[in-house]
Amino acid sequence: MVEMVAVPAVAEDLATRFTAAGHRLYLVGGSVRDALLGREVSDLDFTTDARPEAVLALLEGWAEAVWDQGIAFGTIGARRHGATVEITTFRADAYDRVTRNPIVAFGETIEDDLVRRDFTVNAMAVELTGDAKRFVDPHGGLAALAAGVLDTPATPEESFADDPLRMLRAARFVSQLGLTPAPRVVEAMTAMAGELSRITRERVQTELSKLILGTHPRRGIELMVDTGLAELVMPEAPAMRLAIDEHMQHKDVYTHSLVVMEQAIDRETDGPDLVLRLAALLHDIGKPDTRRKESDGRVSFHHHEVVGAKMARRRLRELRYPKSVIDEVSQLVFLHLRFHGYSAGEWTDSAVRRYVTDAGPLLERLHKLVRSDSTTRNKRRAAALQRSYDSLEERIAILRQQEELDAIRPDLDGNAIMALLGLEPGPLVGKAYKHLLAVRMEQGPLTHDEAVAELRAWARENGVG
Prior knowledge:
Low-confidence stretches: 243-250
Structural class: alpha+beta
Shape: elongated
Helix content: 40-55%
Radius of gyration: 29 Å
C-alpha cells in the first residue's frame, strides 16, 4: 500500500535526520489521503515521537525558516525548498468540552495519535523511518476512502463532543471530496448540531468558505441544512424552503438557489469564485420575508433583492467575512434583478450605462449570476432569456467602444467646476459633480462648451455663484 503514496523528496530528506537521531517520523492525515486520491499535496503533515524541543533541534540547519507558534500544542512549522511542513508530536489529548480547547497530552504511539483524529480517511499514516516504510491504518481509512464513506475513528458523538467544528468539517469534506457520511455520523450531527455554538465565528467562516469552494458545494450545504447545522451557520438557507400549498404556490426557493449556484459554477472561468458562489446561493434570501399573496391570487416578492442584499450583508458580517467579500456579494444580490427590466431590449443607452456603472468591477460576475438565475424547464423561455442577455451584452460592448464605458466621468472635473463657479471645496462642488455625472449618463459625452453651459444652467437654477 505504501507504493500508492508518492513520498516527496523533502519528506525523505527529513526522515533521514529523524532516523539518525533515533526518532520515528510519519507522513500523516490529509497528506496521505490526498496522495492516495492522486491530488496535489502542497503542505506536508508529519507526526513523530520526538518532543517539540527535539524537533526544533532537528530542524536547525535543515529548514530555511521555522515557526513555533503552535509549540504549546506540540506543533512546529518549517519551510525548505518551497515546501511547507508541519511536525506534531504524537498527541493523546482530552478536551474540556466547554470550549474546544484540548488539554494537551503527548502520546507514545502512532495508534494513540490516529485515534484522536477527526475522520478515518484522515487517520492513515506512512512511517518514513526504519528499515522499510510502513502503512498504518488501524481504523480502515483506506477502505472508507475507496468506498467514498466519511466516518470517525472513535464514535462520532465522542469525536464531535471533543471538537464540534468537526461536524462542519464533515460537510466540508462532503463538498471537497464527494464523500458520503456514514449514517451514524449524520445522526450524531443532527443530535449535536447545537454544540457548534461553542466555535468562534472566524473558524466557522473558514470551514464554510472551504465548503463553498469545494467540488460539490451543493452536497455540503444540503448536509448542513438536513442536520440542522445551517441554523447556526447560515439560517437563511433553510429558511428558503418555502412550503408549497394551494394558496401560496411557488417553486422551492432553496432548491432553485442551489441549482443557480451549480449553474454559476459551470460558468466560472478562473477557478472557484467565492464571491460568485455566495451571491448565487444568497441571491433570493429576501424572498421569504417579502412573500405576499396578491388580490389576483398570484404570489409576489416585491423588492426581495433590496431586502436580500441587506440580509446577505448582515449574515456575512456576522460570519466575519472581509469587507470586500461582504460588499461584493451584497451588491450582486442587490443587482441580480435589474436585468429583468430589459426584457425585449427596450432599455435606453442611459439605462445600459447605469447597469454597467452600478456593477462596476462586478460586471462579469453579474453576467454569470443573471444567466445562471434561470431554472425554468421551459426550453423556449430559457433560450429567450439567454438571447435577451446576449443582446444586452452586445449593446454594452458597442457602448464601450464608443465611450470607454468602464471609466465614465463627468465632462468637467472638480477643479474645473470650482474654477468656473468660483467655489471653494465643499458640498456644492459634489452636488454639481453629481449633476454633471447624471447628465453624462443620460446624454452621453458632451463637448467642453456644452458641459460648461450645463453647469452654468444648474448653478442658476440652484442659486449658486
